[in-house]
């Protein structure tokens, strides 16, 4: 894709305009013009700061992934709520190291965020060689099962979305 | 305002309130720092989500046009919650905050602190 000099990040510009309109909760012409001006100027200022990230190759799959994560968040909330209100003695927290297949910054960040938002797990640290994700689990019953879930449910689709 | 709109706003507010309350209870009840991280990062996403959707419905019903900036708040929450949790966990690891005694695979904490790959020793 050829990059226009006055519009270095077209998708970001569109996103900025949408966010501006949502923030102001209006589609009045004045805000449309102001939002457009901002959406044109801000990417121009930020373009030199960009680092190259893998591109989303399969947007539809990305949408499905988002919906799946949203459903999982609701389920996670209910699970954690039950654990929190239950007896503390039965809680079995634990650390797990999940081997990673994706290594680029953006997919790993997305995976770590997803892990933090979903059932009973918080991502604590990534190893420097980007091969391992350290995860703290609130109630660790089966270590291997947790690793398998993270890998098949979240990492595999991310790998497909970014084709890396 | 329509009865059904009011009812759904009430239900959403109740669900949201319950989850935020559970998040706070978790913060007070859970035994160590690492487990405490779980309550606010999760229980608040649905809690806040419920309250914000209720606000969206109320505003749209009262003012007669679609009010969408609550969606933006939800989005920002979903982006920032895991990052906060991650930074807190990272800081705790570097401060060598002690985890609960029965935490499994405690040896991983030292490796995680140094950002090294895990060694395959058992507990």
UniProtKB/TrEMBL annotation, chain A:
Domain of life, source organism = Bacteria
Which residue ranges traverse the bilayer?
Answer: none
Please name the InterPro entries in this protein's record.
Answer: Cation_antiport_E (IPR002758)
Annotated family: Belongs to the CPA3 antiporters (TC 2.A.63) subunit E family.
Which compartments does it reside in?
A: Cell membrane
**Keywords attached to this entry:** Cell membrane, Membrane, Transmembrane, Transmembrane helix
Q: According to its UniProt record, where is this protein mainly located?
A: membrane
Q: Under what name is this protein listed?
A: Na+/H+ antiporter subunit E
Upper taxonomic lineage = Bacteria, Pseudomonadati, Pseudomonadota, Gammaproteobacteria, Oceanospirillales
Tell me the membrane topology, using the record's own terms: Multi-pass membrane protein
Q: Which organism is it from?
A: Marinobacterium weihaiense
Q: Pfam families of this UniProt entry?
A: MNHE (PF01899)
UniProtKB/TrEMBL annotation, chain B:
Which InterPro entries does the protein's record reference? PhaG_MnhG_YufB
Q: Where are the transmembrane segments?
A: 6-27, 39-59, 71-93
Sorted alphabetically, the keyword list is: Membrane, Transmembrane, Transmembrane helix
Q: Pfam families under this entry?
A: PhaG_MnhG_YufB
The superkingdom of the source organism is Bacteria
User: Hey, what's the signal peptide range on this chain?
Assistant: none
Keyword Lipoprotein belongs to the record:
no
State the NCBIfam families in the record: CPA3_mnhG_phaG, PRK12674.1-5
Which protein are we looking at? Na+/H+ antiporter subunit G
Q: What is the lineage of its organism?
A: Bacteria, Pseudomonadati, Pseudomonadota, Gammaproteobacteria, Oceanospirillales
